[in-house]
Amino acid sequence: MKKIIEKVKFKINWDGVRNFFNKFLVVSGIILASLVLIGAGFYSGYTYSSENPKNIVIRGAANIDSNEASSVDFGVFWQAWNLLKSTYIDGANLNDKDLMYGAISGLVGATKDPHTVFMSPDDSKKFEEDIQGEFGGIGAELSVKDDFVVVVAPLEDTPASRAGVKAGDKILGIDGKPVLTADVNEAVKKIRGEVGTKVTLSLLSNGDSKPHDVTLTRETISVPTLKWEVKDGNVAYVQLFSFNEKAPFLFYKAAMSILLDSNIKGMVLDLRNDPGGYLEVAVNLAGWVFDKNTLVVSERPRDGADTKFFANGTGAFKDMPIVVLVNKGSASASEILAGALRDNRKVKLIGEKTFGKGTVQQMESLKDGSQIKMTIAKWIMPNGGTIDQTGLTPDIEVKISDDDVKAGKDTQLERALEEVKKMF
Fold first, then answer.
1. What DSSP string describes 380-417?
2. Is 395 exposed, middle or buried, given 0-12, 13-18 or 19+ CB atoms closer than 10 A?
3. Confidence band for 277, pLDDT divided at 50, 70 and 90
4. What secondary structure letter does DSSP report for 10?
5. Could you confirm whether 343 is annotated as catalytic?
6. What is the pLDDT of residue 192?
7. Residue 237: phi, psi to the nearest 5?
8. Residue ranges of the domains in the chain?
9. From 189, 343, 378, 388, the catalytic residue
């Protein structure tokens, strides 16, 4: 079963991910979830509990046991339900299903994990359209960080990138309405829409004291995967935009060309603004740069029984000098590959601190079409460290100023080329 690094795409035409809902996610991110409905006796429980609110007790919230300290009195919930229905000014117009879904949203939100979220049947349907690309978008990855909805990475040649949206930008408003909670699901639903229509975002960029508005025209987004070229006659510059299903073959084609060029002596691997993708792709690409059976990453679930993932490739570039470019938009799969290169080969990371998405999510469908996306494990790097929340701090920090952008100057790439040449 495929595990997927958390993806927060809400407007991207992904090829080959039709079976997404049956696979693991890791994401950044990603974004929607579903509900847990305990038993079929919802309404009978409500009727009984309204009359006898103190008689419904679920000890331990999951298991019947004798530990009174962990008991939960669900009578309180039914009392609140009854008050809303009987006393709230618009109680007669409240929809029972909306109340139930709202309660489950609160239940899931109590985890305080931005990657464990609730998705109603309608949201599930929209999420499927999201994955299949059957809508328009602006071309940006979204996630939650520091209690804000933030841009993980603008995708190349999309409305977002062309308008100057940056990794790390906080979304404070959409079409003139404030984003009051760090709810990626709601932000996604408001931002995506019919191709050709417009959406206005109020963005607060790092270092700015005031937000600025950007109006974007929605497009059908096609995500680039990889491109490469030879820099300065002897350095292979490989830019990876996504760890999607196309990446292994495209990297293979690039690798064959690089290996056949006797002038190439080193490589710059550019993972900037790469928000991740499939875990299997990260492990596959690691097979080109490590000896076989080198540990790439471990998955640690709640019981602490690690599942380890090892490189299993040719190791064709295991002795080639490599440096890696990273920034705030480098997330999950990008962080795993970059971190493994540093842990196992002391490869230098150049640029800015990465996003910090290091958990595994799993989608669970329920009988009414709802879903829960919940965090089930953490990624552990080869040296035992984690990347979730903390990200990867570059060995050589290089920032690109606004003046550099206006001048078309990539100071991070310039430094990477300088560093890799020192290793020849």
1. E-TTS-B-TTT----SEE----HHHHHHT--HHHHHHH
2. middle
3. confident
4. S
5. yes
6. 85
7. -105, 110
8. 42-109, 226-358+381-421
9. 343
Asked if 76 and 56 count as a contact pair (C-beta separation under 8 A), the reply is no
Cβ(82)–Cβ(95) below 8 Å:
no
Give percent of the chain with pLDDT exceeding 70.
Answer: 81
Which residue of the set 11, 357, 373, 378 is catalytic? Answer: 357
Q: Is 370 a catalytic residue?
A: no
What does the buried/exposed string (b/e) look like for 241-276 if buried means 16 or more CB atoms within 10 Å of the residue's CB? bbbbbbbbebbeebbeebeeeeebbbbbbbbbbbbb
For position 406, what pLDDT does the model report? 79
Q: Could you give the C-alpha distances from 25 to 6, 206, 319, 357, in angstroms and in order? A: 5, 28, 32, 12
**In the predicted model, what is the mean pLDDT of residues 37-58?**
37
* Residue 60 Cα to chain centre, angstroms: 32
Phi, psi of 349 (to 5 degrees): -100, 130
Residues whose CB is less than 8 angstroms from the CB of residue 239 and which lie 6 or more positions away in sequence, other chains included: 226, 227, 228, 270
Fold (CATH) for 226-358+381-421: 2-enoyl-CoA Hydratase; Chain A, domain 1 (3.90.226)
**Alpha helix stretches (DSSP H) within 52-162:** 75-86, 96-109, 121-132, 159-162
Q: Is 161 a catalytic residue?
A: no
pTM of the model: 0.73
**Cα angle, residue 297 at apex, residues 293 and 301 outer, rounded to 5°:** 125
Residue of 330, 332, 334, 370 marked catalytic? 332
